[in-house]
Amino acid sequence: MTKQETETAISKLTENLTSRGVIVKFNSEGDNAYYPEPNTIAINTRQNKKSKYYSLLHEVGHYLLRQDKDFSTKYLIDQTFSSKTKDKRIDVLREEVAAWDKAYEFATINQFPIEKDKWDFYSKKFIYQYAVWVINPAKFIDD
User: Fold this and answer.
1) Which of 121, 8, 127 is nearest to 61 (CA)?
2) Architecture of the domain whose range is 3-137
3) Half-sphere exposure of 15 (CA within 13 A, CB side)
4) What does each C-alpha distance from 30 to 1, 26, 27, 34, 45 come to in angstroms?
5) Paired residues of 23 in beta bridges
C-alpha cells in the first residue's frame, strides 16, 4: 500500500469504528490501546503510517474481543498492568494474540487491506514484546 492508500484505509477504519460508537483518538502521547470505558481506541501518532494502521486494526481486535459476553471469564484482565501476577500476564499475552487474530478476521471480512508481510512483521514484533514481558516484566523491550 502507498502512504495515500494507508491513510485512506485509516480513515475508512476510523469511520467504521465511529459508526459502532467507538471513539478513536490520535495523539502523540501514550500507548496504542483500547479502553473499554469510555469505549475508546488511542493511537500514538509518532509511529509511521503503516504502523498506525496495523496498530489501529489490532486495537479493533481488542474492541471486538471485549464485546464477547464471556470475555471476563476467558481472560483475567484488569487495568493494573505493572502489578499483574504470572497468571494474569499469561492472560494478557493470550488476549494480545487473540486480538491480532480477531483483527485479521475483521479486516478480511470487511475488506480492509492487509499486506501479509507487514501484518506478520507488526504482529510478531508486538507479540514478542509481550512474551518477553510475561517472563520478565522488568525487561519490557522494544526491539
Assistant:
1) 127
2) Orthogonal Bundle (1.10)
3) 8
4) 26, 10, 8, 12, 10
5) 40
Element (H, E) at 26: strand 23-27
Using one digit for the tens of pLDDT, what is the confidence trace for 16-40? 999 999 999 999 998 999 999 899 9
d(CA 86, CA 75): 13
Q: How many CB atoms lie within 10 A of CB 13?
A: 21
Band of the pLDDT at 46, cuts 50, 70, 90?
very high
Please name which of 23, 18, 105, 3 lies closest in space to residue 58, comparing C-alpha atoms: 105
pTM of the model: 0.88
